Amino acid sequence: MKVCVVGLGYIGLPTASLLAAKGFNVYGVDINIDHVESINRGQITIVEPDLDVLVRAAVQSGKLTASIEPQAADVFIIAVPTPFKDGHAPDLSYLERAVMVIAPQLTTGNLILLESTIPIGTTEKVGGLIQSIRADLKLPQFKPWLSSRTNSVEQEGNIYLAHCPERVLPGQILKELIDNDRVVGGLDRASGLKAKWFYEKFINGKVFITDARTAELCKLSENAYRDVNIAFANELSMVCEEFTINVWELIELTNRHPRVNILQPGPGVGGHCIAVDPWFIVHSSPDARLIRTAREVNDAKPERVLSKIRQKASRFIRPIIGCLGLAFKADVGDMRESPALRIVSQLVEENVGNVLVVEPHADELPIALAGENVKLVDLETAVIKADIIVLLVDHREFQEIDREVLKEKVVIDTRGLWR
Ligand code: SAJ
Question: What is the average pLDDT across 177-199?
Fold first, then answer.
Protein backbone atom coordinates (compact mmCIF):
# COMPACT_ATOMS: atom_id res chain seq x y z
CA MET A 1 0.00 0.00 0.00
CA LYS A 2 1.31 3.45 -0.91
CA VAL A 3 0.84 6.33 1.48
CA CYS A 4 1.49 9.97 0.67
CA VAL A 5 2.05 12.16 3.74
CA VAL A 6 1.74 15.89 3.11
CA GLY A 7 3.55 18.03 5.69
CA LEU A 8 6.69 16.57 7.27
CA GLY A 9 6.63 18.42 10.58
CA TYR A 10 6.12 17.31 14.17
CA ILE A 11 3.23 15.02 13.21
CA GLY A 12 3.77 14.17 9.54
CA LEU A 13 7.37 13.06 9.85
CA PRO A 14 6.90 10.69 12.82
CA THR A 15 3.76 9.28 11.13
CA ALA A 16 5.54 8.82 7.79
CA SER A 17 8.53 7.07 9.38
CA LEU A 18 6.35 4.87 11.55
CA LEU A 19 4.34 3.80 8.49
CA ALA A 20 7.59 3.08 6.64
CA ALA A 21 8.80 0.99 9.59
CA LYS A 22 5.54 -0.99 9.35
CA GLY A 23 6.25 -1.79 5.71
CA PHE A 24 4.17 0.80 3.84
CA ASN A 25 5.73 2.61 0.89
CA VAL A 26 5.68 6.20 2.01
CA TYR A 27 6.12 9.40 -0.01
CA GLY A 28 6.63 12.38 2.21
CA VAL A 29 5.86 15.81 0.81
CA ASP A 30 6.92 19.17 2.16
CA ILE A 31 7.18 22.69 0.70
CA ASN A 32 10.58 23.22 2.37
CA ILE A 33 13.24 21.86 0.00
CA ASP A 34 16.03 21.96 2.63
CA HIS A 35 13.89 19.90 4.96
CA VAL A 36 13.09 17.43 2.16
CA GLU A 37 16.77 17.06 1.26
CA SER A 38 17.88 16.50 4.82
CA ILE A 39 15.18 13.85 5.35
CA ASN A 40 16.38 12.07 2.21
CA ARG A 41 19.85 12.01 3.78
CA GLY A 42 18.26 10.46 6.87
CA GLN A 43 18.77 13.61 8.96
CA ILE A 44 16.23 15.66 10.85
CA THR A 45 16.05 19.04 12.53
CA ILE A 46 13.10 18.25 14.81
CA VAL A 47 14.10 17.48 18.41
CA GLU A 48 12.05 14.46 19.49
CA PRO A 49 13.29 11.36 21.33
CA ASP A 50 14.20 8.46 18.99
CA LEU A 51 12.78 10.17 15.88
CA ASP A 52 16.24 10.52 14.30
CA VAL A 53 16.83 6.76 14.53
CA LEU A 54 13.40 5.95 13.09
CA VAL A 55 13.75 8.38 10.18
CA ARG A 56 17.25 7.16 9.34
CA ALA A 57 16.07 3.53 9.31
CA ALA A 58 13.00 4.40 7.21
CA VAL A 59 15.08 6.23 4.61
CA GLN A 60 17.82 3.56 4.53
CA SER A 61 15.24 0.82 4.00
CA GLY A 62 13.97 2.69 0.90
CA LYS A 63 10.44 2.75 2.34
CA LEU A 64 10.45 6.50 2.96
CA THR A 65 11.33 9.08 0.34
CA ALA A 66 10.64 12.80 0.57
CA SER A 67 9.90 15.27 -2.19
CA ILE A 68 8.29 18.64 -2.80
CA GLU A 69 5.78 17.03 -5.21
CA PRO A 70 3.13 14.49 -4.22
CA GLN A 71 2.68 11.18 -6.02
CA ALA A 72 -0.29 8.95 -6.67
CA ALA A 73 -1.03 6.76 -3.63
CA ASP A 74 -3.75 4.68 -1.96
CA VAL A 75 -3.89 6.82 1.15
CA PHE A 76 -3.18 10.55 1.55
CA ILE A 77 -2.47 11.94 5.02
CA ILE A 78 -2.50 15.70 5.44
CA ALA A 79 -0.59 16.95 8.47
CA VAL A 80 0.08 20.62 7.81
CA PRO A 81 -0.13 23.46 10.33
CA THR A 82 -3.37 25.35 10.92
CA PRO A 83 -2.29 28.50 12.76
CA PHE A 84 -4.46 31.54 13.40
CA LYS A 85 -4.40 34.93 11.73
CA ASP A 86 -4.75 38.37 13.32
CA GLY A 87 -7.90 38.42 15.41
CA HIS A 88 -7.51 34.67 16.08
CA ALA A 89 -9.35 33.58 12.92
CA PRO A 90 -8.12 30.18 11.72
CA ASP A 91 -5.65 30.28 8.84
CA LEU A 92 -6.52 27.34 6.59
CA SER A 93 -4.24 28.38 3.73
CA TYR A 94 -1.71 25.54 4.29
CA LEU A 95 -4.51 23.00 4.38
CA GLU A 96 -6.15 24.36 1.24
CA ARG A 97 -2.82 24.38 -0.56
CA ALA A 98 -2.16 20.77 0.47
CA VAL A 99 -5.61 19.72 -0.78
CA MET A 100 -5.08 21.49 -4.13
CA VAL A 101 -1.70 19.79 -4.49
CA ILE A 102 -3.03 16.26 -3.95
CA ALA A 103 -6.29 16.74 -5.88
CA PRO A 104 -4.77 15.99 -9.32
CA GLN A 105 -3.25 12.75 -7.96
CA LEU A 106 -6.50 11.28 -6.64
CA THR A 107 -8.10 8.17 -8.08
CA THR A 108 -11.24 6.22 -7.28
CA GLY A 109 -11.00 4.35 -3.97
CA ASN A 110 -8.44 6.69 -2.40
CA LEU A 111 -8.63 7.45 1.31
CA ILE A 112 -7.85 11.02 2.41
CA LEU A 113 -7.11 11.59 6.09
CA LEU A 114 -6.97 15.09 7.58
CA GLU A 115 -4.79 14.94 10.71
CA SER A 116 -4.34 18.70 11.04
CA THR A 117 -6.40 20.36 13.78
CA ILE A 118 -9.29 22.13 12.06
CA PRO A 119 -12.36 24.23 12.89
CA ILE A 120 -15.80 22.59 12.92
CA GLY A 121 -17.07 22.02 9.38
CA THR A 122 -13.67 22.01 7.66
CA THR A 123 -13.79 18.37 6.52
CA GLU A 124 -17.02 19.15 4.67
CA LYS A 125 -15.35 22.18 3.08
CA VAL A 126 -12.36 20.08 2.03
CA GLY A 127 -14.78 17.61 0.42
CA GLY A 128 -16.39 20.49 -1.49
CA LEU A 129 -13.00 21.86 -2.56
CA ILE A 130 -11.86 18.51 -3.94
CA GLN A 131 -15.20 18.06 -5.70
CA SER A 132 -14.86 21.49 -7.32
CA ILE A 133 -11.41 20.59 -8.69
CA ARG A 134 -12.21 16.99 -9.62
CA ALA A 135 -15.74 16.80 -11.07
CA ASP A 136 -14.88 13.28 -12.30
CA LEU A 137 -14.74 11.96 -8.72
CA LYS A 138 -17.69 11.55 -6.37
CA LEU A 139 -17.07 12.84 -2.85
CA PRO A 140 -19.52 11.64 -0.18
CA GLN A 141 -21.85 14.19 1.37
CA PHE A 142 -21.49 14.97 5.08
CA LYS A 143 -24.06 13.24 7.25
CA PRO A 144 -24.18 13.81 11.00
CA TRP A 145 -25.03 10.72 12.97
CA LEU A 146 -26.18 10.47 16.52
CA SER A 147 -25.20 6.87 17.01
CA SER A 148 -23.57 4.18 14.92
CA ARG A 149 -26.98 2.48 14.56
CA THR A 150 -28.59 5.42 12.79
CA ASN A 151 -26.24 5.52 9.84
CA SER A 152 -26.07 3.16 6.95
CA VAL A 153 -22.70 2.06 5.63
CA GLU A 154 -23.90 2.37 2.09
CA GLN A 155 -21.20 3.99 0.10
CA GLU A 156 -22.29 6.92 -2.00
CA GLY A 157 -18.93 8.37 -3.04
CA ASN A 158 -15.91 6.83 -4.70
CA ILE A 159 -13.41 8.69 -2.48
CA TYR A 160 -13.14 8.28 1.29
CA LEU A 161 -12.51 11.39 3.39
CA ALA A 162 -12.13 11.53 7.17
CA HIS A 163 -10.75 13.78 9.90
CA CYS A 164 -8.42 11.82 12.20
CA PRO A 165 -6.94 14.36 14.59
CA GLU A 166 -3.53 13.63 16.02
CA ARG A 167 -3.29 13.56 19.82
CA VAL A 168 0.38 12.99 20.53
CA LEU A 169 2.32 14.82 23.21
CA PRO A 170 5.56 16.49 22.05
CA GLY A 171 8.38 14.68 23.85
CA GLN A 172 6.51 11.36 23.68
CA ILE A 173 5.33 11.43 20.08
CA LEU A 174 6.47 7.99 18.96
CA LYS A 175 5.04 6.18 21.94
CA GLU A 176 1.73 8.06 21.84
CA LEU A 177 1.41 7.67 18.06
CA ILE A 178 1.23 3.93 18.56
CA ASP A 179 -0.55 3.66 21.92
CA ASN A 180 -3.14 6.47 21.98
CA ASP A 181 -6.75 5.77 21.08
CA ARG A 182 -7.88 7.61 17.96
CA VAL A 183 -11.14 9.28 17.02
CA VAL A 184 -11.93 9.20 13.31
CA GLY A 185 -14.66 11.37 11.87
CA GLY A 186 -15.86 10.23 8.49
CA LEU A 187 -17.54 12.51 5.99
CA ASP A 188 -19.84 9.50 5.70
CA ARG A 189 -19.83 6.23 7.60
CA ALA A 190 -18.02 4.36 4.85
CA SER A 191 -15.14 6.85 5.13
CA GLY A 192 -15.03 6.40 8.90
CA LEU A 193 -14.87 2.64 8.56
CA LYS A 194 -12.15 2.84 5.92
CA ALA A 195 -10.09 5.18 8.12
CA LYS A 196 -10.48 2.83 11.09
CA TRP A 197 -9.35 -0.10 8.95
CA PHE A 198 -6.22 1.84 7.97
CA TYR A 199 -5.21 3.05 11.46
CA GLU A 200 -5.69 -0.41 12.90
CA LYS A 201 -2.91 -1.57 10.61
CA PHE A 202 -0.27 0.43 12.46
CA ILE A 203 -1.46 1.58 15.88
CA ASN A 204 -2.19 -0.33 19.09
CA GLY A 205 -4.74 2.13 20.51
CA LYS A 206 -8.47 1.69 19.92
CA VAL A 207 -10.08 3.52 16.99
CA PHE A 208 -13.50 5.09 17.51
CA ILE A 209 -15.63 6.19 14.57
CA THR A 210 -17.90 9.20 14.55
CA ASP A 211 -18.90 11.91 12.08
CA ALA A 212 -16.47 14.57 10.87
CA ARG A 213 -17.91 17.48 12.87
CA THR A 214 -17.83 15.52 16.13
CA ALA A 215 -14.21 14.50 15.52
CA GLU A 216 -13.27 18.11 14.74
CA LEU A 217 -14.80 19.42 17.99
CA CYS A 218 -13.45 16.42 19.92
CA LYS A 219 -9.87 17.43 19.11
CA LEU A 220 -10.51 21.10 19.85
CA SER A 221 -12.24 20.19 23.13
CA GLU A 222 -9.29 18.10 24.31
CA ASN A 223 -6.95 21.06 24.05
CA ALA A 224 -9.51 23.60 25.28
CA TYR A 225 -10.14 21.38 28.33
CA ARG A 226 -6.45 21.46 29.19
CA ASP A 227 -6.22 25.19 28.52
CA VAL A 228 -9.15 25.94 30.83
CA ASN A 229 -7.61 23.80 33.57
CA ILE A 230 -4.21 25.49 33.23
CA ALA A 231 -5.98 28.87 33.31
CA PHE A 232 -7.54 27.85 36.62
CA ALA A 233 -4.06 27.11 38.02
CA ASN A 234 -2.69 30.36 36.58
CA GLU A 235 -5.54 32.34 38.07
CA LEU A 236 -4.91 30.76 41.46
CA SER A 237 -1.22 31.67 41.20
CA MET A 238 -2.20 35.32 40.81
CA VAL A 239 -4.61 35.17 43.75
CA CYS A 240 -1.89 33.51 45.85
CA GLU A 241 0.60 36.23 45.00
CA GLU A 242 -1.70 38.88 46.44
CA PHE A 243 -1.84 37.03 49.75
CA THR A 244 1.76 35.72 49.89
CA ILE A 245 0.58 32.13 49.66
CA ASN A 246 2.85 29.53 48.03
CA VAL A 247 0.70 28.36 45.11
CA TRP A 248 2.63 25.10 44.70
CA GLU A 249 1.97 24.12 48.29
CA LEU A 250 -1.65 25.24 47.92
CA ILE A 251 -2.19 23.04 44.86
CA GLU A 252 -0.41 20.08 46.40
CA LEU A 253 -2.66 20.27 49.45
CA THR A 254 -5.85 20.98 47.48
CA ASN A 255 -5.12 17.97 45.29
CA ARG A 256 -5.21 15.74 48.38
CA HIS A 257 -9.00 15.91 47.93
CA PRO A 258 -10.08 12.73 46.11
CA ARG A 259 -11.93 14.57 43.35
CA VAL A 260 -9.65 17.56 42.80
CA ASN A 261 -6.74 17.58 40.38
CA ILE A 262 -5.49 21.10 39.69
CA LEU A 263 -2.78 21.47 37.02
CA GLN A 264 0.37 23.53 37.39
CA PRO A 265 0.66 27.28 36.92
CA GLY A 266 3.48 28.68 34.81
CA PRO A 267 4.63 31.71 32.82
CA GLY A 268 1.81 31.17 30.29
CA VAL A 269 0.70 28.52 27.82
CA GLY A 270 2.71 27.90 24.69
CA GLY A 271 3.14 25.44 21.87
CA HIS A 272 1.39 25.16 18.59
CA CYS A 273 -1.69 23.42 19.98
CA ILE A 274 -3.13 24.47 23.33
CA ALA A 275 -2.34 28.17 22.80
CA VAL A 276 -4.01 28.05 19.37
CA ASP A 277 -6.77 25.46 19.06
CA PRO A 278 -9.25 26.81 21.65
CA TRP A 279 -9.49 29.97 19.52
CA PHE A 280 -11.04 27.84 16.76
CA ILE A 281 -13.99 27.13 19.07
CA VAL A 282 -14.17 30.72 20.29
CA HIS A 283 -14.07 32.02 16.74
CA SER A 284 -16.94 29.81 15.65
CA SER A 285 -19.24 30.14 18.67
CA PRO A 286 -20.22 33.13 20.84
CA ASP A 287 -21.26 30.61 23.50
CA ALA A 288 -17.63 29.66 24.21
CA ARG A 289 -17.21 32.29 26.93
CA LEU A 290 -15.30 30.18 29.43
CA ILE A 291 -12.91 28.95 26.76
CA ARG A 292 -12.26 32.53 25.61
CA THR A 293 -11.61 33.71 29.18
CA ALA A 294 -9.19 30.83 29.77
CA ARG A 295 -7.25 31.87 26.67
CA GLU A 296 -7.15 35.45 27.91
CA VAL A 297 -6.01 34.43 31.42
CA ASN A 298 -3.22 32.27 30.02
CA ASP A 299 -2.17 34.85 27.46
CA ALA A 300 -1.95 37.51 30.18
CA LYS A 301 0.46 35.47 32.29
CA PRO A 302 3.74 36.46 30.54
CA GLU A 303 3.00 40.13 31.27
CA ARG A 304 2.53 39.27 34.97
CA VAL A 305 5.95 37.63 35.00
CA LEU A 306 7.47 40.59 33.17
CA SER A 307 6.16 43.11 35.68
CA LYS A 308 7.63 41.06 38.50
CA ILE A 309 11.02 41.02 36.75
CA ARG A 310 10.85 44.78 36.07
CA GLN A 311 10.04 45.41 39.71
CA LYS A 312 12.99 43.32 40.96
CA ALA A 313 15.29 44.79 38.31
CA SER A 314 14.53 48.34 39.43
CA ARG A 315 16.53 47.64 42.61
CA PHE A 316 19.75 47.33 40.58
CA ILE A 317 21.62 49.94 38.51
CA ARG A 318 21.96 47.50 35.60
CA PRO A 319 21.10 43.96 36.58
CA ILE A 320 22.33 40.79 34.94
CA ILE A 321 19.22 38.69 34.41
CA GLY A 322 19.69 34.95 33.91
CA CYS A 323 16.72 33.52 32.02
CA LEU A 324 16.52 29.75 32.21
CA GLY A 325 14.69 28.23 29.25
CA LEU A 326 13.18 29.46 25.99
CA ALA A 327 11.17 26.40 24.91
CA PHE A 328 7.40 26.26 25.36
CA LYS A 329 7.69 23.46 27.92
CA ALA A 330 10.11 21.16 29.70
CA ASP A 331 12.59 18.93 27.89
CA VAL A 332 11.70 19.94 24.32
CA GLY A 333 13.39 22.44 21.97
CA ASP A 334 10.21 23.74 20.34
CA MET A 335 9.80 27.50 20.85
CA ARG A 336 6.53 28.01 18.99
CA GLU A 337 4.19 30.36 20.90
CA SER A 338 6.60 30.01 23.83
CA PRO A 339 5.77 32.30 26.77
CA ALA A 340 9.45 32.06 27.82
CA LEU A 341 10.57 33.40 24.45
CA ARG A 342 7.98 36.17 24.65
CA ILE A 343 9.19 37.21 28.11
CA VAL A 344 12.88 37.18 27.16
CA SER A 345 12.25 39.10 23.90
CA GLN A 346 10.39 41.78 25.81
CA LEU A 347 13.16 42.08 28.43
CA VAL A 348 15.71 42.49 25.65
CA GLU A 349 13.58 45.00 23.76
CA GLU A 350 12.94 47.09 26.88
CA ASN A 351 16.63 46.78 27.79
CA VAL A 352 15.76 45.95 31.39
CA GLY A 353 19.30 44.64 31.96
CA ASN A 354 21.90 42.35 30.45
CA VAL A 355 20.19 39.08 29.70
CA LEU A 356 21.96 35.73 29.90
CA VAL A 357 19.86 32.98 28.33
CA VAL A 358 20.27 29.27 29.03
CA GLU A 359 18.52 26.85 26.69
CA PRO A 360 20.02 23.35 26.68
CA HIS A 361 18.06 22.47 23.52
CA ALA A 362 19.47 25.32 21.37
CA ASP A 363 22.93 25.94 19.87
CA GLU A 364 22.20 29.58 19.13
CA LEU A 365 19.69 32.23 20.02
CA PRO A 366 16.62 32.57 17.79
CA ILE A 367 16.70 35.57 15.42
CA ALA A 368 13.98 37.25 17.49
CA LEU A 369 16.58 37.68 20.24
CA ALA A 370 19.28 39.66 18.47
CA GLY A 371 20.95 42.40 20.50
CA GLU A 372 24.01 43.59 22.39
CA ASN A 373 22.24 43.02 25.68
CA VAL A 374 21.52 39.29 25.26
CA LYS A 375 23.76 36.21 25.13
CA LEU A 376 23.28 32.44 25.11
CA VAL A 377 25.43 30.97 27.89
CA ASP A 378 25.76 27.72 29.81
CA LEU A 379 23.88 27.13 33.03
CA GLU A 380 26.91 27.54 35.29
CA THR A 381 27.85 30.92 33.80
CA ALA A 382 24.30 32.23 34.11
CA VAL A 383 23.93 31.09 37.70
CA ILE A 384 27.27 32.56 38.78
CA LYS A 385 26.91 35.88 36.96
CA ALA A 386 23.22 36.70 37.29
CA ASP A 387 21.79 39.04 39.91
CA ILE A 388 18.27 37.89 39.09
CA ILE A 389 17.50 34.33 38.01
CA VAL A 390 14.20 33.74 36.23
CA LEU A 391 13.24 30.10 35.75
CA LEU A 392 10.97 29.99 32.73
CA VAL A 393 11.07 26.33 31.71
CA ASP A 394 11.38 23.34 34.03
CA HIS A 395 13.97 21.50 31.91
CA ARG A 396 15.47 18.61 33.87
CA GLU A 397 18.96 20.23 33.70
CA PHE A 398 17.70 23.09 35.87
CA GLN A 399 16.73 20.79 38.70
CA GLU A 400 20.35 20.17 39.54
CA ILE A 401 21.25 23.76 40.40
CA ASP A 402 22.95 24.21 43.75
CA ARG A 403 20.24 25.67 45.99
CA GLU A 404 22.93 27.34 48.18
CA VAL A 405 24.01 29.52 45.22
CA LEU A 406 20.38 30.45 44.59
CA LYS A 407 20.08 31.82 48.13
CA GLU A 408 22.41 34.68 47.15
CA LYS A 409 20.27 35.67 44.15
CA VAL A 410 16.91 37.20 43.47
CA VAL A 411 14.95 34.20 42.18
CA ILE A 412 11.73 34.22 40.18
CA ASP A 413 10.64 30.62 39.72
CA THR A 414 7.64 30.63 37.37
CA ARG A 415 7.36 26.82 37.29
CA GLY A 416 7.76 25.92 40.95
CA LEU A 417 10.82 23.79 40.21
CA TRP A 418 12.66 25.00 43.30
CA ARG A 419 9.50 25.49 45.37
N1 SAJ B 1 1.33 23.76 30.94
C2 SAJ B 1 1.17 24.44 32.11
N3 SAJ B 1 0.70 23.75 33.20
C4 SAJ B 1 0.39 22.42 33.13
C5 SAJ B 1 0.53 21.73 31.92
C6 SAJ B 1 1.01 22.43 30.82
O7 SAJ B 1 1.45 25.65 32.21
O8 SAJ B 1 0.00 21.87 34.16
C9 SAJ B 1 1.81 24.49 29.74
C10 SAJ B 1 3.11 23.93 29.16
O11 SAJ B 1 4.21 24.44 29.85
C12 SAJ B 1 3.03 24.41 27.73
C13 SAJ B 1 1.54 24.32 27.44
O14 SAJ B 1 0.88 24.31 28.68
O15 SAJ B 1 3.44 25.75 27.60
C16 SAJ B 1 1.12 23.11 26.63
O17 SAJ B 1 1.83 21.96 27.04
P18 SAJ B 1 1.16 20.52 27.21
O19 SAJ B 1 2.21 19.58 27.65
O20 SAJ B 1 -0.04 20.62 28.06
O21 SAJ B 1 0.60 20.18 25.77
P22 SAJ B 1 1.24 20.18 24.28
O23 SAJ B 1 0.91 21.49 23.65
O24 SAJ B 1 2.65 19.77 24.28
O25 SAJ B 1 0.38 19.01 23.61
C26 SAJ B 1 -1.03 19.11 23.62
C27 SAJ B 1 -1.61 17.76 24.13
N28 SAJ B 1 -3.02 17.92 24.41
C29 SAJ B 1 -3.57 17.53 25.58
O30 SAJ B 1 -2.91 17.07 26.49
C31 SAJ B 1 -5.04 17.66 25.71
C32 SAJ B 1 -1.36 16.68 23.08
O33 SAJ B 1 -1.98 15.46 23.46
C34 SAJ B 1 -1.91 17.12 21.71
O35 SAJ B 1 -1.69 16.15 20.71
C36 SAJ B 1 -1.19 18.39 21.32
O37 SAJ B 1 -1.50 19.39 22.31
C38 SAJ B 1 -1.66 18.81 19.94
O39 SAJ B 1 -0.89 18.61 18.98
O40 SAJ B 1 -2.80 19.26 19.81
Answer: 96
